[in-house]
Inverse folding.
């Protein structure tokens, strides 16, 4: 009986001594399962550089890593960029370390800037303080997890996080995750 009591008490002591902050995925609709008008993904913004239309961007219900849907972006002519992203509202935390990850896939993406994750850390006036990007994927690749783990500059009030395509070809994103302060959850 005494041994049982010890086993019960130790976890209680550990819980009392740690930070109660539980990092959660800050993305809404992170797996692109909720669809809005014109086959777009709820809570996500997709757009391209001004000028001639060069991208098709929509939820793809024929290919997914998780659930029924992914989001597909296809570049069919020259243009500066096409992007799918979401504004992330930051929790009030002192230590602003983040981990941004997503499953990415490509088909026949030409060499160059390719398909990659991108984060813009913005000041109150919208100015980009810091930008992070992952290594571009090109050619044809199966689903792979891509991760960016970095610090958020202290003056950041808003983050836009998503993926950008800057080469001809097709690309997909699914199972996106944006977590703040993963190290403090231990
Ligand atoms: Ca999905």
């Amino acid at each position: 009986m005494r041994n049982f009591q010890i086993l019960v008490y130790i976890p209680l002591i550990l819980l009392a001594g740690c930070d109660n902050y539980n990092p959660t995925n800050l993305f809404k609709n992170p797996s692109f399962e909720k669809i809005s008008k014109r086959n777009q993904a709820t809570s996500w913004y997709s757009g391209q550089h001004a000028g001639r239309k060069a991208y098709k961007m929509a939820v793809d219900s024929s290919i997914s890593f998780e659930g029924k849907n992914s989001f597909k972006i296809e570049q069919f002519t020259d243009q500066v960029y096409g992007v799918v992203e979401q504004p992330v509202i930051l929790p009030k935390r002192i230590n602003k370390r983040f981990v941004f990850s997503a499953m990415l896939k490509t088909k026949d993406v030409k060499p160059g800037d390719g398909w990659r994750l991108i984060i813009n850390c913005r000041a109150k006036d919208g100015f980009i303080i810091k930008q992070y990007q992952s290594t571009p994927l090109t050619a044809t690749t199966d689903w792979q997890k891509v991760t960016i783990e970095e610090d958020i500059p202290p003056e950041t009030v808003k983050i836009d996080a998503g993926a950008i395509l800057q080469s001809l070809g097709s690309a997909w994103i699914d199972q996106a995750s944006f977590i703040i302060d993963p190290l403090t959850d231990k």
Remarks:
- Residues 26 and 178 are 5 Å apart (CA to CA).
- The longest helix spans residues 2-16.
- The pocket of calcium ion is lined by residues 31-33, 64, 66-67, 69-70, 174 (CB under 6 Å).
